[in-house]
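Internal tracking record. Fields below are filled automatically when a chain is submitted to the structure queue. Please do not edit lines marked as system-generated. If the sequence contains nonstandard residues, flag them in the REMARKS field before resubmitting.
Queue: standard
Priority: normal
Entity type: single polypeptide chain
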Amino acid sequence: MTAEQAALREQPASSVETPSGKSRDAENFPVGSFLIRRELRPHVHAFYRFARNADDIADNPALTPDDKVRRLDRMAAILDGDPGADSPAASAMRKSLIETGLSAEHCHDVLRAFRLDATKLRYRDWDDLMAYCRYSASPVGRQLLDLHCESRTTWAASDALCSALQVLNHLQDCTEDYRRLDRVYLPVNELAAEGIGVDALAAPISCSGLRRVFDRMLDRTHMLVETARDLPRNVTSSGLRWESAVIVELATRLLRRLRRGDPLAARVKLTRVDFLAAFAIGWSRGPR
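SYSTEM-GENERATED OUTPUT FOLLOWS
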């Protein structure tokens, strides 16, 4: 056992939640920012914490797949009303759902995605990856929309935005995911078309074939972002309208940076200037 794995195992035996040890340098989007109505922010944060802690279980390299699934199942049981303090995030999420009157549908959807993360290491093609994003990414936007009592007609644009952010994050973390977890979100058929395998991710810089895989994924992600541009103008809540406009701009900027940068050479991420500019542009585009 490595020192990192030993450290990750050092946690209270009564807790099912666990740190993953995976770096979280910066988020790509605001989480319950000042743009969201004050009374809803605690519920946004509760959902984010629930999803993040479940994600950490799936990303912990010191746990076996069976142990990960067992812990995620325990979070689901507490979410549905089982007593127990072994998952504070699930308990807080349960309380939030009771207070808001929302169902646990989106919470269970993200748990389904994290069970996949615990057991599935490869994705065959783009459609396979999008099926995963339906559970790993889309529920985040849907939960936010439901909190604001928005129409479900907004879901398509929201799903596109959340899936785009998910793919961009996969590209940012492709090297770390491969080296730490042997998990690869790049479609296997795309790699095979270039005559390369997943081991190309272990190189210090991207080869030409891998760069073409990245670019094709970014082309598809660009289409998702274009679909997502419909979201702000179709949202009725002014704060959420502004926040969604900001996030669309952040996705656009991160996509542009990934076009120019090499995620194998260094993690490509947004800068403070990107965030400030995105808030300014989103603010100007938010009003109907």
